[in-house]
Amino acid sequence: MAIAFGLALVSLGAIVWCTVAARPVAGPAPPKGTAAPNPWVAAAARADPLVGWARKATTEVLVTGAAGDDLERVPEGRLDPRQRQVKVTVLHRLEMSAKDPLIEALRQGGGFPGTLQQVIDAAFGAIKVDGPGLAPTTRLAPVLISDEQRTTARFTVTLLRQLQRDELLKLNFNAPNAFPLIVTGRSIAVLPGAWTVLRLEGITPEREREERLEFTIGAYPVSMTLAPDSYGFADVVVEEDFSWATALGVLTAIALVIFLLRSLGRSWWDRRANRELVVGLALAAPTLLIPLFAPDWSAVTYVVMFVAVPALMLRHAGRVLPTSPPWNTRDLLIVTGLGLLVGLGMLSWSWLHGQLSGRSLLLCGAVAAIAAAGSAIAFSVDLGVRPVIVRLAVLSAEAAIGLLALALWLRALLTEVYPPDSARLVLALSWALIPISAVAVATKQWKRGAVAGAVLISLLVQGWPTEWLDAGSWSLAVPEDEPTIGSLSLTPLVRGVLGLLLLMFVLLVLRLRRLGGRLSAIDDPVVESTMITVLMVLYITPSGSTTLADIDVPLPLLAISSIVAWATARWLLAGPRPAIAEPVTQEEHRQLVRAALHKRLLLISEQELYRIGRGRIGAGDLSMNDFEQQRTILEAALNRHGRHPETAFATAAGCTPWHNGVHAFTVSLLLSLPFALVYGWPEGVDLTSFIFDGRYLITLPAFGFLFGFFYPRIRGTQPMTKALHLTAAALMTELSGYLSTLAEPDIGPFDKVQVVGIVVGQVMMVCIGLGLFWEWRTMHLAGEPWTRVRNLRSIRSLAAPTLALVLAAGTTAATSAAGQTVDRILKGDQVTTTQR
Question: Which residues form the signal peptide (predicted)?
């Protein structure tokens, strides 16, 4: 034991020594735009004061509308035709004497184009234009015009902005940031174009005309505000006392919470472990607001999200599951082996960037690994089992290497220079404990495949493989800003929260799978609440923003579609329901269908007897006795089958609700895929944003899943009548999302009709197609040909599906020629995710 503890201390000492001896890693290189010093500052300091006084700076600002050529470099999806696109062109001129040293510095172009912004801001001061930018500011190469006595340098800057129709445009003229000053005064002329000067701050005009405003300022900031010529100010602004958006948002939130609580069921709340989990998550939730109000304490939120919550979920799974995880030594060796590979990668980074020399890393790593392995052997030698001793030695050596890499990683992380992907890797592996525990609880068992899948999903939640495989992600390249969705920056914390929301949705679906394994589930209020919650979540449309502590925070504006989905789902399930004898086996289903086909034959025969009897009795070809005899035989046969409505085609066909729901979802998804050409394929910077962007592909299939899962409860007694009721519900829900947009006066009636036609065509294509498939499936499960209920040679029999196909094909073809307005209506006012 003394030898074992001594070797363990040696291994630990080697790791501590390496950590203490590690040198700070040099920080990342400065951004390219500020890599070189400003070449004008030193030249201006060398210049004679008289030469400096001879300089003359003039600026001309031209405000115009952005043309098509100007908007070509704007990322796709960022333009909004309902808003105003503005182009601000700034033309700077600096006149200098022929002896001015700035001319030579300008000709040498020190650091251009990286220092071009510094040069312009140092001489003329930065000009800022309020409003969201459509594209990055562009600067042309400087142009020099010289004669014998003077040289003029001309700089051109272009800014693109997008404003609301009634929004004001503010221009801020900042002070030059060079010291000593390159020029003492600046002459500025503003040509507002289709704008009118509304306010001046710190400006006394020298010349004031409708089309031109000229003034001179020194080394101090000023600003002006412009108003569009077509905009008038109302004397009294009438504010709405009641906001439909807020009311609908509150109503949707309340409904979602109620259905979510009901979907858990009373028995779920009766378990103490579940109540403790809810309390723990409720205590952790407020910490997510810390980055909004106290950014300096964001580390607390990261600890809660990636340490406390995973530990809470793991503890909950350990208490709920009846058995312990079935992990063995082989699993442990695989996991530690993967950890060893990651640790070796981190140690390679430490060597490449000079944190420790290669000799020191090899020496420390060897000492730590050998001593740890020797300690494990000394501890386990008394067991006398050679495989166990070897495995413990290997595990201890791998753990020592991993601990060394982790210690050096933490040491480098203190200086904030470690690769960002390594931090994301650690956070993703920590977050992976949450889905591992959740899936284990949902499936009531620990599975190795679920663990591997959860780790993979966690890595995707923190970013796509293209982000992880970026050549500069494991170097000291210039750090870039996080990608964004609208104004929401996708930090690892935000990605983790979005991943939790996605996980909650997946757990609801898994709950439907578990509860849908029995036929009685269709009448269970818990299952119904779970299904409605899933449907409402799919129809939530996040948009807009709010202000919290002077911070613009995007929040989901809960759309009316979510409420309509709730109402239509309830309408589908709450209709009149005839008494149905549900078959338990496929044989019972076969007997019911055959009896129903026999009854249909008798009814058709009775109708045919009355139809032909009128003509044949009148013509004398059929006597009344013969007619009465045949009628009596048919009546007796019908009485034996009963006079109650035929319901064989309204049953679950002996299948479980989950089985029926999956089949209906699959068929609906296949019927919806062609319309992806209309809406476009989903996009996203990570897994959660990609899935959210692709919700439109599974909203109608979700209605199809509702159709299959609760098929016996759907209004109607036949597959096609049920499909028609589903069409009405889905159509009302889909169109509700476009109500506010279709009321826009700026959108032409042709575009509105085209959008409605697209939605109607898609809904009819999916729902009628699903009804025909269900009719065929019911007959197929009964072992009967489909032609016995639908005559493919009859025009009347094919009227409904033909109409659906014609509408779908027509609207899809029309959409191929649709303009930008229709495309924007269908996809919504989404802000393209960009890299700032």
Answer: 1-22
